[in-house]
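Example record for the data management plan.
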Amino acid sequence: MMLSLKLLLAYLVDRGIGDPRFIPHPVVIMGNIIRRMEPFLRRMASSEKALRRIGLLYPLCLVGGSGGIAWGLITGLKMIHPWLSELLEIWLISTTIASKGLADAAMEVYDKLREGNLRHARASLSMIVGRDTEHLEEKEVVRGAVETVAENIVDAIISPLFYAAVGGAPFALAYRAANTLDSMVGYKNERYQNLGWASARLDDVLNIIPARITGILIVLLSFVYRLDAVGAWRTMWRDAGKHPSPNSGIPEAGVAGALGIRLGGFNRYQGVESFRAYLGEPLHPLRPSHIVETVHLMYGVANFFILFLSSTLFLLGR
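Corresponding structural encoding:
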């Protein structure tokens, strides 16, 4: 089966069923391995300087191991029957994409807000963000949902599809391992600034190209959906660099400009307040409908990209 068709089918699997809880998910397995490795890696370090070198083992073991295991399973099943191998690769690629899960989580927040149930909306938001949500006002709940969907257009959709197009399921799983590492240990705090630095840097490097592809697609789809495409481009150009991540600022600024809203501001993490630079201009007050618009924009970007990838690979004979 051609890679172009496998990518398309994997995306349709994700859109159709997402990640059923009764099927073991590779990301859950990766998370368990990361947690179990941490005490072992810390015991190996005699100092913080040594811990920084040992931090290289996280991406070497998990990223390399994830890609290698995926390749081994696909190759092994091919010896039994080619179709088993093809089905496995489609499923593995689908597990690296999270369009349905991301949309469902954001729309759950929207539904609670529409019902006037702010307390449950805060609880739903807490499942997809790291910030404290217990005392957020409605507009801050909206901001959290919009920022999460915008940022994850890259991490959960464009990047996995991009790397799947480059090297099939092994590359897609390797990317997902790098992204999972960054989300768990890639923090610039006292606990992880040495152990997690390599994981954070690798994730930044891997997302450089996909993030910029995403920015271009946000502008294009903003035009198609009659949003502010010029505002999306202008805001990305002006504000994306203010974000602490070299990549996440691009989709967040693009969405802010397209919707005419302002993202960023004060957040609390375990009771500690921090400020993230503002992205965009508050031309419109934040309201629940902006969550829906962001989800629609996310799906538009995802649909366009998968069709573009599949068509290009098909024309290349892949």
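Summary line stored alongside the record: The radius of gyration is 20 Å.
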